[in-house]
Amino acid sequence: MATTSSWWRRARRWPGTVWGSSLPLRVIVTTLVASILVLALGAWMILWQATSGIVSGKTQLCADEAGSALTRMQDQLRDADLRSTSLLERLQQLANEANSQAGAQYQLVIEGLVAGFSSRGISADSVPGSLRDTVKANPDAVDVLWHAPTTVVYTAPGTPDDPGIAFGGTLHAPTGQGYAVYFVFPLSQEAATVAVLRGAVLSTVTVLIAALALIAYAVSRQFSRPVRLASEVAGQIAAGDFERRLPVKGTDDLASLATSMNNMAGELATQIARLEDLSRVQQRFVSDVSHELRTPLTTVRMASEVLYSLREDFSPTASRTVELLQAEIDRFSTLLADLLEISRFDAGAALLSLEEVDVVEVVRAEVAELDLLSTGMGTPLVLHASPRIVAEIDVRRVRRVLRNLMTNAIEHGERRPIDIDLAADEHAVAVSVRDRGVGFAPEQAQLVFQRFWRADPSRQRTVGGTGLGLAIALEDARLHGGWLQAWGRPGRGAVFRLTLPLHPGDPLRTSPLPLRPADRSGTQATSGEEAT
Q1: Helices 395-412 and 359-369, packing angle to 10 deg
Q2: Measured CA distances, 238 to 36, 234, 265 (Å)
Q3: What angle do CA 374, 378, 383 make, to 5 degrees?
Q4: Where does residue 391 rank: exposed (0-12), middle (13-18), buried (19+ CB within 10 A)?
Q5: Which among 53, 111, 326, 433 would be 20 to 30 A from 504, CA to CA?
Q6: CA 347 to CA 334: how far, in whole Å?
Q7: What is residue 430's three-state secondary structure?
Q8: pLDDT under 50 in the chain at which residues?
């Protein structure tokens, strides 16, 4: 059921995906839709005007013919000698004569008060009821005709019906009686003409649509190909190929775009080369200064240790000064060591010293080493781990990462317990350090790993630190092929999660531990709030 639902969602999104991913498709479809609407409107207007003209002309001719026939029949009936023949027989004769004179132009239907006469070959049903009602409602009208569209119904079996038009009037007998007379004109030839015209219009419209599709495709190719080429070149430039350029042809807008992109690529290459030179100079400067400071720092440290060992013999003020000097020299030594480590990462000279160890014991050893500090700060470290997790890691670097994360949690934990969770699956091992202190905003989840970055610059450090700890921890995690991720909320604390592959080179897909914290009862937050 879940697979079917997923397939249905993908199928519903597929048209939108295709539509949004192809500029030529949008151009061709938009052009065709607009062209079809315009052509359909034009074809309808042509057919409507042609049909109206044909029907109108035919109606006028039929009206003239029917009026002449009605006048002639009226004159003949008025001059008829009804002593030698009956009125009905005379009406029959008139009908026969009219049909003979009409040929195939029309058929005659006469309805009388006593009997009805129908012309040969068609049914009286060929006269529409609306026309019958109109003629009956005007029995005294003389030489007046009404007309209505109709369907000519033939009496011969298997003969298809034809569209037609019927005219009706009243034939007045000398006796004063009135007889309804109807002239039924087939419009088969006109219908055939309209059908031929309709076919010609539809064929023309079809050919025009096909031609417009080809034209739209050709036009879309003219500008989509340069745009696609510009996209490919931009991607190659973004990937670091700064020598790639767009060909410039002509002087139109596309040529201007290609020239601008080429200029941009040249300026970008120049600026990146300048920044790379500056970065190399800066990294070299940091590395050289750090190395050069080690010798004088060692001398100063030796002198400080001598003074520190003799501080009992000094006055209280001098003794306190010696203690502060020793503390700052220790802090400076730590900063210098961190700078040297950062310079190794920048130079790509950092290497791993892997060994297969029990990660649980590594974490437990680091917790024990920081127990005195956490107890003094009133922030207990609580370890939640399985009995044994074996992985190939650089123990020194992993312990440094853990030390930085735990020290950072103690620094910002607001004297609340710190949970340290440890878990593993078949591919990875993860350690998360969760405090319940000041936390940080979600958008700062990446900033915390920047060098010398502090969420609150006014906040005083209570356990030292150089501002490089998390930056070095992130580099140590990357050196292992792992992740170091952060989650935080103001007032709710923070979580730092270290995820490492069990074996070097194994790709990481997921972490055994969630990033967003869960309470100890197991209620897990949604992954949508994870910040990496």
Answers
A1: 50
A2: 42, 6, 9
A3: 50
A4: buried
A5: 433
A6: 20
A7: strand
A8: 1-2, 113-117, 521-532
The predicted structure's pLDDT at residue 460: 52
117 within 8 A of 93, measured Cβ to Cβ: no
Written as one letter, the residue type at 438 is V
Paired strand residues for 118: 109
H/E stretch holding 493: strand 493-501
Burial classification of residue 242, based on how many CB atoms lie within 10 Å of its CB (0-12 exposed, 13-18 middle, 19 or more buried) = middle
Helix (H, G, I), strand (E, B) or coil at 181: strand
Amino acid at 284: R
- The reported pLDDT for the residue numbered 482 is 92
CA-closest candidate to residue 528, choices 480, 467, 487: 487
The pLDDT assigned to 462 comes to 54
Closest CA to 492 of 516, 521, 456: 516
H helix runs in 87-155, sequence order: 87-102, 129-137
Give residue 478's identity as a one-letter amino acid code. Answer: R
Instruction: Tally the residues of the chain.
Output: 532
CA 167 – CA 164 distance, rounded (Å) = 10
Q: Which two tokens stand for residue 20?
A: 């949004």
As to burial, measured by CB atoms within 10 angstroms (0-12 exposed, 13-18 middle, 19+ buried), residue 119 is buried
Crossing angle of the two packed helices 469-479 and 395-412, in degrees rounded to 10 = 140
Nearest Cα residue to 22 out of 220, 197, 241, 178: 220
Phi and psi at 388, nearest 5°, equal -155, 130
Closest by CA to 162, choosing from 96, 89, 76, 104, is 104
* Burial status of residue 484 (CB atoms within 10 A of its CB: 0-12, 13-18, 19 or more): buried
| 53 φψ region: left (φ > 0), alpha (ψ -120 to 50), beta (else) | alpha
Q: Which residues face 422 on adjacent strands?
A: 431
CA 81 and chain centroid, separation: 91
| Whole-number Å distance between alpha carbons of 28 and 431 | 55
Alpha helices in 348-444 (DSSP H): 359-369, 371-376, 395-412
Question: What is the DSSP secondary structure assignment for residue 243, as one 8-state letter?
Answer: T
The pair of structure tokens assigned to 51 is 């049909």
**Closest-CA residue to 163 (of 153, 172, 173, 155):** 153
How is residue 199 written in tokens? 């076919």
